[in-house]
Design goal:
By secondary structure, this protein is of the alpha/beta class. It has 31 helices and 23 strands.
Length: 786
Amino acid sequence: MMASYAISLKRPLHFPLRKKKHPMCLAQLIADLNVAPGRIEELVARTELVHFDPAVPLLNKERAKTLSSLWVLAACTASDPLAAYEAFIAPQRKAKLELPEHAFKDFCARIRRVAPDQAHPGFTRLGAAVLLHDIGKTPWVHDLHQQVLDTSASPGHDEAMAEVFAAAPSSFLSAVEAWPDPGQSEFLEVLAANFNLLQFVQGECPAASLAGIRDLSDAAYDLLVAEALLDLAGQAGLPPGAGSAVVNRATWEAVNPGLQSLDGLRAGKYDVVGAWKNYYKRRGEKLGLDADNVIHFALIRVGCQLRWLTPAQGRELLMGFAEFSGHANREFFVGNLPACTSLATCLWGPVARLVNCLNATGFVNDLAILPEYMPDLVQVVEKRSGVAAALDAEARVLDVAYTQSIRDGKSTGVVKVVIDHLRDCAKDVDFRLVEIRLSGDGPVLKAHGRNRTADLIPTTLTRRFDESHDFGHKKGARIRIVAAGGGADPANARLYAEILGDLGVHVDRIVAVRRSKPSSQAPDGSSPTEIRLQGHRVLADGVYRVTEDTRRAEGAKFRFTELLAAGPLRGSTAAPPAVVMVIDDGTDTLVERLAYCLNAPCSGAEGENTELDGIVVFDTGGDILGSAGLPAAELLQSRSQDHRTLAAVLAAAPNIPAQVAIAACGMDSPSDTKDKLVAVAAVWMPPSDRTLQVVVRGINEQAGRYFHVEGETFYGKSPLAWQLALNGKFGYHSLPIPRQYACHQQNPWQVYYWVDGSRDPDNPTCGGGSGIFVMDARKLLDVIAR
């Protein structure tokens, strides 16, 4: 009888009882152990390991695991641990993955470092650690965390347990007799280390996570390892005495090298990064992958998440990576993969995101993402859709987490993202259709998933295009296009002008509104400077005529896409639209400058001056539909360039009819897009083969010209999303965003975007993002200002 070492888990008197629909308390757990048959089960019962309070809940899904873990504890600390060996490996026989006897001895030895036998105080302490670990996963602990620390912040369950136990162990556990002084116990040391062995073994955590291991006392280190092994052994939740389905030969081959690397760290053989790399090097050898190759290293970490261990599986990872990275000939790619030893060689899009975030330290610049439950997600997606889809899923989670963390001001350290809800979504729907949203304001974020197919924009919600009532598409109409948001909008507006030209619409001028100092980085990834030009013509203060010979002034850095809007129309003798850049310096002068551009007489198709029929404010992606949060009369003060431009256009030319046209709607439009399109009575212009031809050819030519002038082929994400939509793609797709944009330290661009496309204009449920939505500008102003 071990009553002298028993612990009592009790609900604090000041803390209200939280009723559950299906409560499972520790009292029921011990009752199950007491009636469980078998010699080893009786050993567990006879220890009187804990005195239970029915008010301390245990999640139903954790109950079976806890029972199984306690049985393994008793088995490993019995006088003859090998007596339980056959029972331990029984569930492993069907898969022919039986843990060898010598490995079982090593496993038991790790447990017995803490508890040499059942009469030792370490036995009760280790049992208490197992129980506390599982209790820590309950919502009850989060409520207690808020009560004790007087905070509404919601950390992960490990962090909540650590913070409560450190701040007031007697509030959480009214009597902790397993440790004479809980505030100085090895269990508190373990919590403070903030290290999860299984996250290390499964490729989730960055190297910095190992830092807390180095300075642990020997007792705390042994407790951490033993508790993690017992937690792992019970994962399948088999009944006590039924063995462990998880700690089999394959699992031990994965875990043991990790333990040896940690032992080396504590012995001074490795530093933190060295221990981390040593483990993944050994895992890479199992997979036939080279840990010195940055692509291989990322794939080794994904292999750890998939729990893969063979060269055949390593080749499957390489083949999946070839598909993921867009190589049609996978065999050729795998056979000719260069020796990528620098992250700088991973230059674009999803490859840049995946390989940089899963690099040899886990840090991009000064930020590392720890996606908790990532192994669960990639295993679900791989089983459903293959390796390439699993790599794509991981890259997208890292993409959202990395970019949002920096936008939220968390640009240094380790940010944990709990993604168990994404895992559950992936079980029910293709993960490409799952929207990822993050919540939380601390170092722990919570990911939420949602099937975004509900956001597809059925064209039945809007009127089909009819030129008889639409000046913007009526043959012979004379209009001016205002590119709303800077970036690639001027280049896209030029493509739109060509589409209108095919309809007989004359566009005499494209007006590009640009902030005086752009917010997005320059082509080389550096911070932008103020806009300065050379080879241009000054029309008025802050109003410049841009020609095909205009360039950025020497030393000026910004994405100059207006040059792609200038130049002759392909295959046409008609005069091209004049391109005018209007500088928005954040003052009311924007209205005056736009008035100068929009109220001047229109140059007709034959060169004569005629009256302007209308203005079209052009946007790509749909972010102009976002709610402004300001009254319509105050939209000129909006921080959104699109909203400010729309309001300024209507103020500058109040007597000229104005519409808004949106291409590739869905890329960055809000979740209530459908409702807003209905509210403004939007008209849908369906896609055509000619539209696809104009856009694809135009994008290729613009990329070539941009490379000729700037040395870069990439000039914006929206034209690429537009092209995907026209090709009938829908769901989240990656774009080849260059690494200097994707991994920028202050303003990283996301790599994945929602594409809402279809090439079937007669299908009433097709995605409207493939066509162009046209709507009354004043109606839209009122709708977004609500």
